[in-house]
């Protein structure tokens, strides 16, 4: 059974620099959506990638969609700037080097808000930018969530 909240705590406690994006970012800002994974955009530098790899190893992380093969993430995977869709002992984790429009950690961190979560401060992509990104997305699930995210923004008075 997935334990996404513990996965978030472990990322934070390992000193991994990341911005939470996706469904959990929306939920943390009041959007009534369901998600089954943790989506992060991580800072791509050797020290941060090293911290992330140590954590992923401790969580038995492996690439999803490999059938019976177990393929572990490595430094090259996490430094390339692409998407690493992983399964861990705590649940699914999408480690993203970039998201819509080629935005990387450095592009997103100034658009993140600090949210308190179980005594920890986490960077979470602001809901207004999350909506903007979903508008750019071609993914059907993103288009479906867009209405809910826009309604949440209106309810909060952000737009």
Explain how this protein is built.
By secondary structure, the protein is an alpha+beta fold. The chain has one domain (4-148): Beta Polymerase, domain 2 (2-Layer Sandwich), CATH 3.30.460. 40% of the residues lie in helices and 23% in strands. The chain has seven helices and seven strands; from the N terminus they run H-E-H-E-H-E-H-E-E-H-E-E-H-H. It has helices spanning 4-13, 23-27, 46-58, 75-79, 105-108, 127-136, 140-156; strands spanning 18-21, 37-42, 62-63, 83-88, 91-96, 112-117, 120-125. The strands form two sheets. It has a five-stranded mixed beta sheet with strand order 1-2-5-4-3. The protein has a two-stranded antiparallel sheet with strand order 6-7. The protein is globular. The N and C termini lie far apart (37 Å).
Would you count the extended β strands for me?
7
Provide the gyration radius in Å.
15 Å
Average pLDDT metric = 93
Major sheet summary line: 5 strands, mixed
Gross morphology is globular
- List the helices and strands in order: HEHEHEHEEHEEHH
What is the overall number of helices? 7
Topology, element by element:
Blueprint: H1 4-13, E1 18-21, H2 23-27, E2 37-42, H3 46-58, E3 62-63, H4 75-79, E4 83-88, E5 91-96, H5 105-108, E6 112-117, E7 120-125, H6 127-136, H7 140-156
Parallel strand pairs: 2-5
Antiparallel strand pairs: 1-2, 3-4, 4-5, 6-7
Helix pairs in contact: 6-7
């Amino acid at each position: 059974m997935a334990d996404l909240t513990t996965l978030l705590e472990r990322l934070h406690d390992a000193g991994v620099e990341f911005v939470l994006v996706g469904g959990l970012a929306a939920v943390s800002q009041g959007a009534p959506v369901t998600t089954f994974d943790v989506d992060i955009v991580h800072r791509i530098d050797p020290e941060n990638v090293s911290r992330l790899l140590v954590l992923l190893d401790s969580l038995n992380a492996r690439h999803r969609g490999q059938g019976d093969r177990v393929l572990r993430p490595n430094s090259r995977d996490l430094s390339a700037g692409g998407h690493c869709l992983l399964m861990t002992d705590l649940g699914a984790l999408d480690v993203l080097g970039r998201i819509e429009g080629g935005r990387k950690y450095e592009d997103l961190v100034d658009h993140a808000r600090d949210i308190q979560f179980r005594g920890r401060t986490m960077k979470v992509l602001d809901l207004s930018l999350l909506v903007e990104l979903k508008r750019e997305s071609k993914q059907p699930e993103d288009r479906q969530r867009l209405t809910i995210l826009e309604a949440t923004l209106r309810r909060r008075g952000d737009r």
